[in-house]
């Protein structure tokens, strides 16, 4: 099925801030929008002109890419390129991935621009559809947020981490990322746009996303593609922010000097290089990791930049080639995935999977869905994980995930 | 955060017999009587993974005596398991335990200081000989340890209940 498209500049749309963009209402298309935001700009999309559930299996990225190319075939190359948003499950065996082209998508920025899409030969996609400015509620739910338990009691999660370190000591694996969840409930439904607005305000440099119930703010760019230019950012190894500048700097220096965190980081860097190198004509990366400081945590970071070999794979194909990196799975990948399935005791769903957008040119951005929650009405699951290497202490990893969960909890809290 | 005991590592000056009596009491003060347990045996008895006990040892929340764990360690662990069974997540309980440990350490140091200044020093200054000083110190210590533990436990219970009542009151008054 191919789509028809229309684009228009929208000087009538006032979306100076992310909150204003999220609060736009397209009337009858209203419903939960898709959103992708960073540094105070981004896009919001409503309705569904086209949607694909690419099913399970490692080839779900290729299936999605091929079907989407067909859907985008009706674009004549004029105006802004139409955009699809997508999120994929972490585990290749899991269902729950999607790719969706919204009916109406509004980019904010210096000037708002709308791209409309419609299906079928008679479609007249209307990029000039009316958009009303509304005001978002201040809180994510009209009721209190209450704890609802975890898939795996964290006493058993602690023991799972100990079991993972034994496997690492035995030499079965080098690194594995273990995550846990934290369920919450409320008497009133959670509003994803409010959560997104709060996350975007607190973490402006992160990729904030709303993707069919998956809401979060990820610091980790899996891949960005513009033409033949490709970039990736590896984050692995983290420490808490300090009390005051001196303590903060000391913790940062300790992180940079930590053999345990450097080892964890090196595995993640190697896995990205291994995935990107065969697709690139040139590929550079930072010689040494640097510190990336966020509101609540600091990470070891390595930037990759390169030129793709022609024909350049789309952002979606690149995401498929990179996923799962050692930053969310482990090393070696296949063995680490088995350990996760065996020890984690929960379904990750789309947590730690690629989430992002790709346009009809193949350009796009995918982040790794970290620091996020899966919403379902008045229920939600929050997630956090930690990279386990030989020197990991289970209680320290438990504390790290507790601190990471707090970042999402504060977006939910009143 | 991990408990350190420099006195155990550093070369110790000779204790006179008065302080030696006190030192013997201090050694026995938290080991209790009865069967001694290895870490694995304690884990099995409490029904917890051994990894939890290892973690608690590293955090200084559980410390085996020279000959392993005692019945009182098993009781404390069982109490902790009650809290987990009631639904408190371990991560939150450990975080609270660290804060409690830190606060209690400061109070304990202050209490020891008070004992030294107002009990031990006067005894040493007024006793006829080291033997009498040792006996009086032992008497004082044996009276004071349960008294102090009782006071602290009672006070914590009262404070906890008051905080819970206050929270309930606020919630029922909330709009």
Shape designation of chain A: globular
* Spans of at least 5 consecutive residues with low confidence of chain B: 1-9
Low-confidence stretches of chain A: none
| Class from helix and strand fractions of chain B | mainly alpha
- The rounded Rg of chain A comes to 21 Å
What class, by secondary structure content of chain A? alpha+beta
Distance between the termini of chain B: 42 Å
Distance between the termini of chain A: 44 Å
Strand content of chain A: 25-35%
Shape of chain B: flat
Give me the Rg of chain B, rounded: 20 Å
Say what oligomer this is: heterodimer
Number of helices of chain B: 7
Mean pLDDT metric of chain B: 85
What does this structure look like?
The complex is a heterodimer of chains A (414) and B (175). Chain A is an alpha+beta fold. Chain A is built from 9 helices and 24 strands. In chain A, strand 18 (290-293) and strand 19 form a beta hairpin. In chain A, helix 2 packs antiparallel against helix 7 and helix 3 (154-170) crosses helix 9 (394-412). Chain B starts with 5 loop residues before the first helix and ends with a helix. Chain B is flat and about 65 Å long. In chain B, helix 6 (90-126) packs antiparallel against helix 7.
